[in-house]
């Protein structure tokens, strides 16, 4: 009876064991997949384009925890950690039963020192779930969780999670953050002594915190022991023996860099949903420090002149990467609102937009670089632009007008643009928050709007990229350089990479690119830069002293209304550089002039770049529809036989307005009287060359103080039939046949319409006719005022030499 009961009990026990085993197997098979990495937040690290750390941010729980994928973690630290913590990691299923049995016996049976016997997987379970493993219940939960993790994750994934969650002292977790903080390098660049040291810390991160002086002797001794074990399988590393004896030297969280702060804040604001991870930016730390060094030194030297703040931006137009960004001279200076990023602030650009007016005018066939433009007083309705010096230079070349930053010619060119205006170019060129076009009117030519420095730099990069507009790059367009612990499908940063992946392919900045986002023709962009190249450099110590450098700099200055903003911006080598000097409060100062406040710092930076061999001009006209020809120096046209002086000039065949000059003409002079003869007779006449300028230009020359030798009048014996066939007939500039003039009936008697014509230099008087009816005579440089009548009339003008021209005028009456 007793044996039968015993057998029955044994069978029940065996069934119970089998059921329990089956339950454990089913539990193991159907145990849910745990999350082992997404339960915590991670830090974000930003690097420069050479992988130098710029900033490491805390995770949301105030810990430094930087996600680092397993393929970025050196094999040395992986192997060293397993050697020290879990030699049989690749053999067990999450639990080392032999070690666990020994630990249980030592801790609870023998009751000697407490032994953990935790595998890497068990440690990961403790880190993930935070259980108390010093009690049996906690240890059992740890074992269960370890099995759960091993069931759903590969060994590689488990190691990856461990190395990203393991404690390394203080508030530092994960090998990625530890390597950056302690050794100022990414985990991928750890050497063997550093790898061995880090592998020791997670076992007791409080006592083995390498920042603590008391921990260093213990770490040094323990690392040596681990190194001895290491050499058993890696004898080739014996050369590291002396390095293992060196004192442990590490940095702390207080040593973390805080570099390019304006740029990093700019990046975070540009991508507010950027996920935690490691990001390689466009910044070049060497160039960033170069900008900061020169800006700080310059402001210190110029403080006595009222200059206390500056912003600067350096962009590589070939790659469109922002390589240096200085938002203010001192990020931490509250007096100047140093944390404001001046490169993103809207400011008046002053004259820095003028090059784009000239580029558009070149594209429209209005000018070429040596065309004559009029720097003279002119009214546009209620708007009368003035030059900075309150004076006028008369007729000057387009290049001189741009380099000297004359306001009136720029406004006049903008007025004459018919196809694409400056406003349209700014909109297409990425300038945001513009008011309606009508709000600015012609004042837009002189900086009547506001732009950011970044927007301005983009536009100048467009010139360097032969008229093609491109967006700037602030994060690397190479996704492999970005590390994130989260899926990146359809994220903001993915869209950024997709949009920029092909942005700069096959474009070295020296050849014309595709027509995508083209704002100017390649030829117009190139010629505009060649005009800007004529602007001479300035020195700081002597603002009036101009210097020449061997390398070309294509630059422009700008000064806003009331001296609030001083600008210098331009292209040098592969870079576009912009410098701004002013106050973030908008308060003006007499010293805030582009050429004397921003210009010296601009060239100080350029020369520093050149000293490092970074400034090499590569802009070439190869492949462009541009011709280099001789130009008559004084007229801007092709020289005729009598042009006394020529110079080389560039123009666009089929587009640029160029003709053979007719200003210099050979005439016959009576030897006795000095008057102009009708026919040549060697005995009594001689040949001489005079300049025959149109009357409007003669007036402008005279107003500018430029004396032009006028051709003498004809001898009285000359027949008008002979003189009338020589020279140029008058050209009627007012009234215009393209306009219908409207007058009110109540004011018909009071209205006047000016008749104006330009004449050849040998004219003296003009005779005006309406429908062949003589109505008045005036001097050649004076207008004739006609009291209009209703209807359509033929208007004719004849000069005193019998040369004439005509047009039509239409006058409508309204009540």
TrEMBL record:
It catalyses: [GlcNAc-(1->4)-Mur2Ac(oyl-L-Ala-gamma-D-Glu-L-Lys-D-Ala-D-Ala)](n)-di-trans,octa-cis-undecaprenyl diphosphate + beta-D-GlcNAc-(1->4)-Mur2Ac(oyl-L-Ala-gamma-D-Glu-L-Lys-D-Ala-D-Ala)-di-trans,octa-cis-undecaprenyl diphosphate = [GlcNAc-(1->4)-Mur2Ac(oyl-L-Ala-gamma-D-Glu-L-Lys-D-Ala-D-Ala)](n+1)-di-trans,octa-cis-undecaprenyl diphosphate + di-trans,octa-cis-undecaprenyl diphosphate + H(+). Its EC number is 2.4.99.28. Pathway: Cell wall biogenesis; peptidoglycan biosynthesis. GO terms for cellular component: outer membrane-bounded periplasmic space. The chain crosses the membrane at residues 12-31. It holds the Pfam family BiPBP_C. Residues 311-565 form the Penicillin-binding protein transpeptidase domain. One of its GO terms (biological process) is peptidoglycan biosynthetic process. Residues 61-216 form the Glycosyl transferase family domain. GO terms for molecular function: carboxypeptidase activity; penicillin binding; peptidoglycan glycosyltransferase activity. Signal peptide: none annotated. Keywords: Carboxypeptidase, Glycosyltransferase, Hydrolase, Membrane, Multifunctional enzyme, Protease, Transferase, Transmembrane, Transmembrane helix. Residues 726-809 form the Penicillin-binding C-terminal domain. In the C-terminal section; belongs to the transpeptidase family. This is peptidoglycan glycosyltransferase. It comes from Psychrosphaera saromensis. The lineage of its organism: Bacteria, Pseudomonadati, Pseudomonadota, Gammaproteobacteria, Alteromonadales.
């Amino acid at each position: 009876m007793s044996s039968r009961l015993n057998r029955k009990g044994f069978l029940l026990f065996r069934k119970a064991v089998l059921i329990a085993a089956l339950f454990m197997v089913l539990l193991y098979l159907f145990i849910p997949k745990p999350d082992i990495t997404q339960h915590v937040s991670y830090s974000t690290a930003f690097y420069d384009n050479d992988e130098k750390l710029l900033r490491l941010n805390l995770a949301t729980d105030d810990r430094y925890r930087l996600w680092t994928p397993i393929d970025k973690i050196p094999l040395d630290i992986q192997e060293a950690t397993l050697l020290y913590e879990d030699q049989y990691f690749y053999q067990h299923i999450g639990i080392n039963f032999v070690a666990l049995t020994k630990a249980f016996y030592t801790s609870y049976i023998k009751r000697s020192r407490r032994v953990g016997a935790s595998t890497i997987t068990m440690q990961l379970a403790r880190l993930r779930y935070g259980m108390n493993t010093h009690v049996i219940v906690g240890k059992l939960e740890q074992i269960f969780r370890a099995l759960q993790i091993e069931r759903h994750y590969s060994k590689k994934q488990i190691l990856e999670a461990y190395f990203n969650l393991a404690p390394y002292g203080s508030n530092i977790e994960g090998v990625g953050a530890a390597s950056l903080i302690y050794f100022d390098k990414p985990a991928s660049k750890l050497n063997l002594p550093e790898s061995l040291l880090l592998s020791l810390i997670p076992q007791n991160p409080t006592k083995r915190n390498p920042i603590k002086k008391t921990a260093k002797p213990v770490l040094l001794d323990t690392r040596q022991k681990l190194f001895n074990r290491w050499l058993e399988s890696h004898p080739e590393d014996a050369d590291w023996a002396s390095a293992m004896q060196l004192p442990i030297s590490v940095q702390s969280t207080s040593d973390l860099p805080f570099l390019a702060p304006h740029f990093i804040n700019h990046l975070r604001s540009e991508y507010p949903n950027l996920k935690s991870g490691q990001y390689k930016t466009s910044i070049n730390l060497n160039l960033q420090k170069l900008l900061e060094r020169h800006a700080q030194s310059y402001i210190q030297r110029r403080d006595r002149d009222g200059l206390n703040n500056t912003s600067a931006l350096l962009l590589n137009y070939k790659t469109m990467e922002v390589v240096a960004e200085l938002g203010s001279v001192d990020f931490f200076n509250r007096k100047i609102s140093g944390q404001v990023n001046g490169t993103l602030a809207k400011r008046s650009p002053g004259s820095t937009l003028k090059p784009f007016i000239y580029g558009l005018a070149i594209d429209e066939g209005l000018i070429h670089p040596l065309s004559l433009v009029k720097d003279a007083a002119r009214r546009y309705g209620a708007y009368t632009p003035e030059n900075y010096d309150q004076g006028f230079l008369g007729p000057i070349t387009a290049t001189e007008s741009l380099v000297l930053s004359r306001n009136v010619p720029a406004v006049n060119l903008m007025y004459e643009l018919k196809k694409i205006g400056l406003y349209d170019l700014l909109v297409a060129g990425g300038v945001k928050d513009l008011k309606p076009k009508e709000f600015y009117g012609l004042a837009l030519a002189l900086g009547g709007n506001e732009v950011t420095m970044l927007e301005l730099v983009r536009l100048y990069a467009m010139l360097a990229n032969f008229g093609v507009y491109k967006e700037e790059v602030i994060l690397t367009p190479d996704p492999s350089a970005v590390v994130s612990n989260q899926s990146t499908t359809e994220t903001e940063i993915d869209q950024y990479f997709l949009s920029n992946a092909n942005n700069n392919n096959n474009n070295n900045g020296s050849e014309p690119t595709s027509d995508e986002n083209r704002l100017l023709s390649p030829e117009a962009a190139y010629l505009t830069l060649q005009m800007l190249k004529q602007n001479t450099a300035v020195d700081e110590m002597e603002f009036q002293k101009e210097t020449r450098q061997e390398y070309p700099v294509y630059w422009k200055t700008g000064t806003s209304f009331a001296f609030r903003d001083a600008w210098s911006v331009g292209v040098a080598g592969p870079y576009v550089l912009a410098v701004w000097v002013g106050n973030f409060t908008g308060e003006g100062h007499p010293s805030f002039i582009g050429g004397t406040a921003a210009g010296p710092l601009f060239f100080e930076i350029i020369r520093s770049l050149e000293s490092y061999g970074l400034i090499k001009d590569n802009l070439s006209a190869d492949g462009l529809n541009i011709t280099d020809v001789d130009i008559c120096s004084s007229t801007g046209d092709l020289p005729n036989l009598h042009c006394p002086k020529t110079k080389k000039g560039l123009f666009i065949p089929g587009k640029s307005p160029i003709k053979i000059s007719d200003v210099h003409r050979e005439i016959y002079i009576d030897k006795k009287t000095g008057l102009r003869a009708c026919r040549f007779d060697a005995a009594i006449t001689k040949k001489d060359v005079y300049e025959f300028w149109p009357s409007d230009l003669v007036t402008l020359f005279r107003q500018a103080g430029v004396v032009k030798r006028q051709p003498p009048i004809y001898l009285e014996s000359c027949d008008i039939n002979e003189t009338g066939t020589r020279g140029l007939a008058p050209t009627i500039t007012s009234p215009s046949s393209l306009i219908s003039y409207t007058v009110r009936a109540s004011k018909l008697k009071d209205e006047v319409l000016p008749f104006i014509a330009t004449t050849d230099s040998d004219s003296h008087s003009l005779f005006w006719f309406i429908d062949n009816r003589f109505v008045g005579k005036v001097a050649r440089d004076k207008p004739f005022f006609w009291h209009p009548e209703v209807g359509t009339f033929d208007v004719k003008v004849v000069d005193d030499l019998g040369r004439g021209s005509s047009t039509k005028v239409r006058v409508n009456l309204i009540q």
